[in-house]
Amino acid sequence: MMTQTYQRKPLTVEAVQITEENLYEVAKWCEGDVRTHNITGKKFIQVDVLHPKDPKQTRASVGNWILKSEQGFKIFSDSAFKSGWERIGNVGEALKSAFAPAEA
């Protein structure tokens, strides 16, 4: 799994969008639990988020984004994330290239 760096003035966060393929890996990253909705049968991640106003704000489903900041985790829908955040680079790739062995 690779997180990417995004910012919303003046806050910079790590963020990852949940997919069917990375659901369990993201749950591990955010220290959440994968659960199954008792009515729909769909899987979601139960996340300990910062200041939830509603229990639904602690459940991240496929398509949602989980953001990690110094204050903790937050969950955003895809549309809310895209309208409020701007990608500033690919930290994972930058770290890989910074520690790659020099070519001879």
Q: How is this structure best described in words?
A:
By secondary structure, the protein is α+β, with helices and mostly antiparallel strands. The chain has a domain at 16-84. Helices cover 21% and strands 36% of the residues. The protein contains three helices and eight strands, in the order E-E-H-E-E-E-E-E-H-E-H. The chain has helices at 23-29, 78-84, 91-98, and strands at residues 4-8, 11-17, 33-36, 43-46, 59-61, 65-69, 72-76, 86-89. A five-stranded antiparallel sheet has the order 7-6-2-1-8. Strands 3-4-5 form a three-stranded antiparallel sheet. Strand 3 (33-36) and strand 4 form a beta hairpin. The longest helix is centred in the C-terminal third of the chain and has 8 residues, at 91-98. The chain is globular and about 40 Å long. 20% of the residues are buried. The model is unreliable at 94-100 (pLDDT under 50).
Write the layout of secondary structure elements.
Blueprint lengths: L3 E5 L2 E7 L5 H7 L3 E4 L6 E4 L12 E3 L3 E5 L2 E5 L1 H7 L1 E4 L1 H8 L6
Antiparallel strand pairs: 1-2, 1-8, 2-6, 3-4, 4-5, 6-7
